[in-house]
Amino acid sequence: MNKILLILQREFITRVRKRSFIIMTLLGPVLFAAFMIVPIWLATQEDKEVKVIAVADSSHLFVNAIPPGDFITFVYPQNVSMDTLKNQLLRGMYYGILYIPHNIFASENVLLYTVKQPSLSTRMYISNTLKNMLQDAKLIKNNIPPDLIRSIRTSITVGTVRLTEEGKEKRSSSDVASIVGYAGGFLIYFFVFLFGAQVMRGVIEEKTNRIVEVIVSSVKPFQLMMGKILGIALTGLVQFILWVVISLFLYQAAQQMFFPQLSKTATQQALAQNVMEPGAGKNIVETPEKPMNVEENAEAVQMFEALKHVNYPLILGTFIFFFLGGYLLYAAMFAAIGSAVDNETDTQQFMLPITVPLIIAIFVMIKAMNDPDSSVAFWFSIIPFTSPVVMMTRIPFGVPAWQLILSMFLLVSTFIFMTWLAAKIYRTGILIYGKKVNWAELWKWIKYAG
Q1: Which of 18, 88, 162, 321 is the most exposed place for a label (fewest CB within 10 A)?
Q2: pLDDT tens-digit map of 229-272
Q3: Number of domains into which the chain is organized
Q4: What is the pTM of this model?
Q5: Nearest to 78 by CA among 94, 99, 57
């Protein structure tokens, strides 16, 4: 055991002193923080350039009627031909020309002439605005009051509350559970591949440099393999914890610097949602934009509240367990492959059985996000080769304790078995050079070592 600890210490110290480890430890949180902050920052940025669009309305239904947006306005040139408007567009007088045909009721199509490709937000604003206006025009044409239709339209926000076995109620959100589950499952998939490949490359490097011949004269091959696997596992765990701590610090600092009103706004929305009276929503239907804003705000408040009720100790604890369990399981197999070959090129024939279960786990993870209690999600969260990814995806949705315990037990049992099996290959292959190994040869090594 002391020799395993010495090898573990050597692997850990050697790797944490590398410049690549220090750079990735510092750069990783910056990338994670940017991944969280940049989309929010971009969403808050608005185009400051006012786009002037000339309207050529052959139907005469929308003259001086299209409402301007925050950064888009409409002008209505009179007695001007399309050719003249196009020349003015080319001279930069307008951002674009909106042509509305005379048969707009039948065609329901308009044309937007621009010099540059129009932005998606501009197209969507014009499309949604004209759609609402055309719907109102059709209603009026058929003697149906548009206000009556708006009063009938209803948007429902479905809030979810989980009832525990103790009878307690907990706010929940499928969106939050999906995001947390996907993040946990994908991180395990990523780290298993990243650090498992490091184990394989480390074994190949020591074998190629003949360092292993000196090492195995003092320690058993099994001790060398376990020390290397555990040392890299400790390195990965330390790096991950540092990533999480630094990422949270950067995220909080950036939120205070760039989005100081974010938490305040969400709190105000939650308070407004709680004190709203049953009849307070009657005026919302007066304009078509209001229901959408209220629905989006309600969903944002629901997600904000659900984040407070996430069982973070359970999520973090199970993540560490399945990360270590999944890594140790696959690292043993990566170490066995590394001991059987002389260079990374020869590993291709052995990589398929290892990579296929992980790739399948990613596809099942998506299925589990949509239906976490399906039979497919259940079985793949129990099978040890896919359970680290799939079970981590299911946990935020709520998993019975017996399923979680069974998955953990099978993962640990399979890890012990695969380590025993990999050790048989490792102790034979680590000292064999210049020989092309196939699956039949590996089977002989297993029987020979036994």
Answers
A1: 18
A2: 888 888 888 888 888 788 778 767 766 765 555 555 444 444 44
A3: 2
A4: 0.66
A5: 57
